[in-house]
Structures are given as structure tokens and as C-alpha cells.
Amino acid sequence: MFKNELVSKAIDYIVENLNEEISIEDVAAYCHLSKYYFCRVFKSETGESIYGFIKRLKMEQSAIEMKLIKNKSITDIGVTYGYSSSNYSSAFKKHHHVSPAAFRKNVNMNSAPHPFILEKKATFQSFDEYNQQIQIKDLDNFKVIYERYLGNYLDLGKNWSEFTEKNQNYFREETLLIERFFDDPSITNVGQCLYDICMTVDTTSPLENVMTIQGGKFAVYSFDGLIPDIFEAFQGVFNIWMPNSGYEMDERYGLNIYRKIDRDEQHVVMDLCIPVK
């Protein structure tokens, strides 16, 4: 969990401006810190240099865009993240160990390697099957208390248990548990996934770790099944439904809204909410 609020603030700035030219000086100034002090604090909190973090996110978010938007050229995707055609190709291959063209050729197939269960392959349903389970909804804004993590999704269960126990006094009948995810674990190293775990609170909450998650139009896929099957189900939505849906994912990030959790039975009912335009 991030303990330094300024590092979390810096990450907000970075993810909101990822398709801009972001310098270390820009981020440090946004946090009202000197460049050199900020670099030390950021590296201590995340284990990455600020430059390396920005570059990694650009490479990974550009790969997600390539996966989700079939009709956008590789050159245009590279330009979106500040690269010329040749520079983007070499930077992408250095980071992902595959060329952009080969990456695009191999995504959106009916199966994919499973990053959490190495001996298993994730297999997907047809577009029509996913389409029958997805609704387009307008969601309200959510005011939440939250904690931010940079790590492995396999730690989610432990992190949620600690988070809910710590904040049990704020639970109400209408309280929602929400995970906001920034990365795709089929693209990002599983130990470097960025995510927020959140709990809705009253708008008058005096707590410090409060933010508003922007609502709007979302494609909502309802999942009712076992926790180990979440990756396969959600990757099917991103690999099969999203690129063929006629929608594009916008600049907001995805949400998992938990409706029911039975940790003993490893069963969960949840909504995968993809922001679309």
C-alpha cells in the first residue's frame, strides 16, 4: 500500500496525462516538491524511478489500446504516446519482447496464456455470448475512501480483508466495495499492477483518504462465479467483446463493483465496468 500521499497524487497526474509529454520536473512541480527530493521519495515508495514508471505506463497503456482498438494504426498509437514510428517500434519491442505488429497479430484470439495459473490457458466465449451479458449503463459518481497498491492481484484477498476490517465502522447497508484497476495483467508484469481498493462513504465523510470516482457511461458485465475464474472471464470481454463492440474505452479507468463475496467458497458476484464512449 502507498503510504505517501504525494506519490499517489503524482500517479494520478501521470495516468491522467499519459498521452502528453510528461517530464520529471512537471510531476515534481505538481506535487510542490524539488525534483531531486521527489525522485528519491517516488523510488522509495514504488521501487521504480519516476522516468522508468512513466515510460513503462506508456508502453503498457499503448499495448492495451492496440488490443482494444482494432482500426487504429500502430503508428497512430505510437504518436498518441509521444513516439515516432521507428522509435515506438523499437521501444515497444524492448519492453514487451515482441514487435507491435506481432503483438497485434497475437491478441484478440479465442485463448490466451494465464498469468496466474501458468499451466492453464484462458479460453473465451464468442462475441454474441459476451454481448448478451453486457449492458450499457450510466453510473453516478462514487465518493470513496481508498488505498492504492502497486503489486500482484493475487494479494487482493488479503488486502481487501485488512481494508474492510480497518474501515468496518463506516459500513452502511448501501456501502459498495469497488476496485479501480489501471493495468491489464496479461500485459503488465503481474507484480507491478496498479489498483485502488475502495469503499463508498457518505459525502460528508471527514476522512483524509477520500476521492471521487467519476461516473458516466460504462459497459457492465456481470460475473457470478469462482474467484480463480475472474481473469478468464474478464479477458474474454477485453479480447473478444470490446474490440468488436463499436465502443472505445475512454480515459477513465475500469471498475470492479463487488456485490457479494464468499471467501470460504471462493465465490464472488461482481460487475466489471468498462468506461466507454
Automatic annotation (TrEMBL):
The keyword Transcription regulation applies. Residues 8-106 form the HTH araC/xylS-type domain. SMART domains: AraC_E_bind, HTH_ARAC. It comes from the Bacteria. InterPro entries: AraC_E-bd, GyrI-like, Homeodomain-like_sf, HTH_AraC, MarA-like, Reg_factor_effector_dom_sf. Keywords: DNA-binding, Transcription, Transcription regulation. Gene3D superfamilies: Homeodomain-like, Regulatory factor, effector binding domain. One of its GO terms (molecular function) is DNA-binding transcription factor activity. PANTHER family: ARAC-FAMILY TRANSCRIPTIONAL REGULATOR, RIGHT ORIGIN-BINDING PROTEIN. This is AraC family transcriptional regulator. The lineage of its organism: Bacteria, Bacillati, Bacillota, Clostridia, Eubacteriales.
